[in-house]
Amino acid sequence: MKKFSSSSANRLLIKFAVKSIVLSIVSIVLFSLLFSEITYKLDLSLEANNLFSVFIVFLCSVCISYFSVLSLKNSGAIMGMLSCLPIVLFTVINMIINQNNPVLFVIKFAIILLTGALFGILATRKSAKFKVK
Q: Is residue 84 part of a domain?
C-alpha cells in the first residue's frame, strides 16, 4: 500500500496562515493610514471614523481573502473566511478597548465573513486551470 506524505499539505497550510497574518497586518496598517490621512486633510469629524472603519474592514477583507486563497484550488469560501480570522480578532480587540457599539461590530463581522467567502470563491475560480485536449 502506498504511503501518503502530509508534509506538502502542512507546508501549504502554514504558508496560508503566514500569508493571512502578514496580509492582515499590512492591509490594516495601510488602509488605516490612508483613511486617517483623508480625515486629517479634509478636517472631518471623528464621528465619520465609524463609517471609515466599515470601509477599512471591507477593503482589508477583500485583500486578505483574495490574495491568501489565490494559490488554492478548492474550498474558496471556507478558506476565504478562515483567512479573515486575524481581522476578526483585531475587530474584537478594537471593540473591547475602544468600547465601540456592538451593532457596529456585528455589521463589520458580517461584512468580513461575506466578503471573505465571496472573494475566496473568486480567487479559486481564477486559479483553477483548465486542460484543453
A: yes
Q: Provide the whole-model pTM.
A: 0.81
For 63, residues 6+ apart whose C-beta sits below 8 A from its C-beta are 23, 27
CA distances (Å), origin 95, targets 20, 64, 88, 98, 104: 21, 21, 10, 5, 9
Alpha helices, DSSP H, located in the chain: 7-42, 48-69, 76-83, 85-98, 102-127
Evaluate the CA torsion angle 33, 39, 40, 42 in order and state its sign: positive
Cell of 114: 461575506
| Per-residue confidence band for 15, with pLDDT thresholds at 50, 70 and 90 | confident
**59, amino acid identity:** L
Task: Name the nearest CA neighbour of 36 among 98, 22, 44.
Answer: 44
Range of the domain at 121: 10-127
The count of domains in the chain is: 1
